[in-house]
Write a structure and sequence with these properties.
By secondary structure, the chain is α+β, with helices and mostly antiparallel strands. It has two helices and three strands. The chain has helices at about 15-30, 100-135, and strands at about 50-55, 65-75, 85-90.
């Protein structure tokens, strides 16, 4: 079941200009030539997001564990008129050190999740449009 929530304005945390600059920067992460989140891209959809890679802290709280990371990708789509947002976090992944980055591990998962979710939403909206005449007393 898909439920659409209405936005509730609580406060303005930044100016519209700053929000637009952030959106553009996040689009560049995925769409830009030097973007670290290219693998979050979806064909024919503008995706915006941010990659993340951090070392895990040691259990005793003194420094970080060598070779242990937490990687992530947070984003939204379509970036020009957002419908969905998601964050993917992979805690302590295993693999070659050059692969342990948010853009390499979490971004492709985000892409697949978002692609499937947007498809599911489109199907649900299409079914809802088809059923609307029926719920209003039948076809006219």
């Amino acid at each position: 079941m898909i439920r659409r929530l209405k936005p509730e304005v609580v406060r303005q945390v930044c100016t519209p200009r700053t929000a637009e600059q952030m959106r553009q920067a996040m689009i560049e992460v995925v769409q830009g030539q030097k973007g670290t989140g290219k693998q979050a891209g979806i064909e024919d959809i503008i995706v915006a997001g941010k990659t993340g890679t951090s070392q895990r802290r040691r259990e005793d709280g003194r420094g970080y564990e060598d070779g242990h990371y937490c990687v992530s990708f947070a984003g939204f789509a379509p970036a020009d008129k957002p419908e969905l947002c998601a964050i993917i976090v992979v805690d302590d992944p295993h693999g070659a050190p050059e692969e342990l980055y948010g853009g390499k591990l979490a971004a492709p998962i985000f892409s697949q999740l978002m692609k499937q979710s947007l498809h599911t939403m489109a199907v649900a909206h299409a079914v809802q449009r088809e059923l609307s005449p029926l719920s209003n007393g039948g076809a006219q």
